[in-house]
Specification:
By secondary structure, this protein is mostly helical. The protein contains 15 helices and no strands.
Length: 441
């Protein structure tokens, strides 16, 4: 029988600092490091510049994390950007963010990672079907959604285990690279390279550092642990990424890295790397599934049109309804995009401009809330204000421009789908009426 304990009907603070760090590290380290490192190396002139661009990506992500730390500790509720945008610009802007997250960003990001999982899983266990990638992608999303529905503990322990395995696996790759006996290879200078492209790829690879903000109401001692987890998680990932690139250069040389699309397999073996990529993708999918549903739960507690989302399951103590609908939207998007050979790239184009656009708006919200809620207690204030949030906003604005330019140059029809969905969202939110008001703390 379902529990009647009222504490099960709302989010409880069950996430430790370690849990939060595992969410951040697990979501950030997906397939990106395996896919982008060779292309990034092609854009730089030497090992020193390679280190600089990866450090710069980590620094930009850390700046963003610090901005989110101020917002999340001042407004420690589930929902992340939805909470800050609603408070800064009004409930309709927050609701538009939730609309875009439900139809575009969250299913697109989960789906893209699921497609990468499917590609590598098919190398290990081929499925004799034209729809094998869809089968594997759905097979990754649905079981992890069920795990997160039946309880916070199964979801967080799955995340912790997958994160530990992937970090250990990457450290094995690093060790293999540094101790590999390979003849030195000459470094051929590149005639042209794009710093902008390198940063686009690197910031894509660092995506996910803000995920813990979505579960702020479930973090123990949020005033301390949210900041600590954001800083620790981003720092750990930066260190791991640097080590992976240095190990690849040690084993293959810079020229070898530039020309090795499967560089990790060249260092540690194809089958082992396929397993590691699968585990990395599963960790990212689980983390995004866990955190994303909290956005829609938060929306459901405040908006009549979404109130079906805003129920915390009395037995499982999870946002079960939000998790179910999130999975349904993700599966629908994966089936639609899975019919294309380049489904992963199309999903990235589909989500990129909207993701970075709302991230830019959240950065601006920090300035607005400093003015609007000037008397509100802020356990943490971002360092070097206003320089750091200005840098963060500038980085997000550049990514909006870069992703829109890429979609226009490649003439991807998905860009028009994105615009149509946003326009539909604008119309939809105009009919919204608030359900109730919630406290900011």
């Amino acid at each position: 029988m379902p529990s009647t304990d009222p504490t099960h009907d709302t989010p409880r603070r069950q996430l430790s600092l370690f849990d939060c760090v595992c969410i951040i590290v697990g979501v950030i380290i997906g397939s990106g490091i395996f896919e982008t490192s060779p292309t990034v190396a092609q854009q730089v002139g030497g090992l020193g510049m390679l280190a600089v661009v990866w450090l710069l990506g980590g620094l930009i992500s850390l700046i963003g994390a610090l901005c989110f730390a101020e917002l999340a500790t001042a407004y420690p509720r589930d929902g992340g950007d939805y909470v800050y945008l609603s408070r800064a610009f009004g409930r309709r802007v927050g609701l538009l963010f939730a609309w875009a997250s439900f139809w575009i960003v969250r299913p697109g990001n989960i789906g893209a990672m699921a497609f990468v999982f499917a590609t590598y899983a098919a190398q290990l266990w081929p499925i004799p079907s034209d729809y094998g990638n869809i089968i594997y992608a759905v097979g990754a999303v649905v079981p992890l959604t069920i795990l997160n529905i039946i309880g916070v503990k199964p979801g967080k322990w799955t995340q912790n285990i997958l994160t530990a395995i992937k970090v250990a696996g990457l450290l094995i790759v690093v060790t293999a690279g540094f101790f590999a006996e390979r003849p030195p290879r000459p470094v051929e200078p590149i005639s042209s390279g794009s710093f902008g492209l390198a940063m686009i790829l690197i910031l894509f690879t660092f995506g996910g550092w803000n995920e813990v903000a979505y579960v702020a109401a479930e973090v123990r001692d949020p005033r301390k642990n949210i900041l600590r987890s954001l800083v620790l998680g981003t720092t750990v990932v930066t260190g791991v990424y640097l080590l992976v690139n240095f190990a690849a250069v040690a084993a293959l040389g810079l020229h070898g890295l530039r020309n090795a699309p499967t560089f990790a397999a060249d260092v540690a073996g194809t089958r082992a790397i396929s397993v590691l990529v699968c585990v990395s993708c599963l960790g990212a999918i689980n983390g995004m599934t866990f955190t994303g549903a909290r956005i829609f739960y938060a929306v459901g507690t405040e908006h009549r049109m979404c109130r079906w989302f805003g129920q915390w399951h009395p037995r499982f103590a999870t946002p079960a309804r939000a998790l179910l609908l999130q999975a349904a939207a993700t599966v629908a998007l994966m089936v639609a995009f899975g019919l294309y050979e380049d489904g992963f790239e199309r999903l990235v184009v589909f989500t990129g401009p909207v993701f970075w656009g709302f991230l830019l708006l959240t950065g601006i919200a920090l300035f607005v809330l400093r003015f609007k809620d000037g008397d509100k207690a802020r356990p943490y204030k971002v360092w070097l204000y206003p320089i750091t949030p200005v840098l963060f906003c500038a980085s997000a604005a550049y990514m909006v421009y870069a992703t829109l330019s890429y979609a226009w140059i490649m003439r991807h029809v998905e860009g028009w789908w994105t615009i149509a969905l946003i326009v539909a969202g604008v119309v939809w939110v105009c009919f919204d009426k608030p359900q109730r008001q919630t406290s900011d703390s």
